[in-house]
């Protein structure tokens, strides 16, 4: 999108059961009970390009990403969910808040996931 600075070029991800559970656990940790952010739809994505770019540049970048992804096929499995505090306008100030192993969530849906790192 030409108008969205932090979503100039994104790869939208399929929401698996493990990824959905990790999102729920992260939100419960990050937000107080009753906070409206707990109810916002989960839209996992990889931001591949930030900034304001001409439509022709974005189309070229999209084509390049699509050609590179074809080597992987349509399925690619992520290993972990990384929660990042993006409330600062400057991306270099963003901080990692937590990591959740998705393999733990997929295998053991009733058990709490192994937490790799937490900081604030």
Averaged pLDDT, please?
76
- What general form does the structure show? globular
Strand content: 15-25%
| Low-pLDDT sequence parts | 113-120
Radius of gyration: 16 Å
What share of the residues lie within helices?
Answer: 25-40%
Number of separate helices: 3
Q: Strand tally, please?
A: 5
Structural class: alpha+beta
Q: Profile the largest sheet.
A: 3 strands, antiparallel
For this entry, give a set of tags.
120 residues; alpha+beta; globular
Outline the fold blueprint.
Elements: E1 9-12, H1 17-30, E2 45-49, H2 55-69, E3 80-85, E4 95-101, H3 102-107, E5 115-118
Antiparallel strand pairs: 1-2, 3-4, 4-5
How would you describe the overall organization of this protein?
With 120 residues, the protein is an alpha+beta fold. It has 3 helices and 5 strands. The strands form 2 sheets. A 3-stranded antiparallel sheet has the order 3-4-5. It has a two-stranded antiparallel sheet with strand order 1-2. The relative contact order is 0.20. Residues 113-120 have low confidence and may be disordered.
Please summarize what this structure is:
The chain has 120 residues and is an alpha+beta fold. The protein has three helices and five strands; from the N terminus they run βαβαββαβ.
């Amino acid at each position: 999108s030409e108008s969205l600075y932090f979503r100039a070029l994104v790869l939208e991800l399929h929401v698996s059961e493990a990824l959905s559970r990790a999102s729920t656990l992260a939100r419960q940790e990050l937000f107080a009970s009753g906070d409206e952010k707990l109810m916002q739809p989960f839209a996992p994505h990889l931001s591949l390009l930030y900034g304001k770019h001409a439509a022709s540049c974005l189309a070229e970048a999209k084509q390049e990403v699509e050609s590179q992804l074809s080597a992987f096929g349509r399925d690619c499995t992520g290993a972990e969910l990384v929660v990042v505090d993006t409330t600062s306008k400057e991306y270099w100030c963003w901080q990692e808040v937590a990591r959740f192993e998705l393999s733990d969530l997929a295998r053991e849906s009733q058990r709490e996931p192994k937490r790799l790192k937490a900081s604030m």
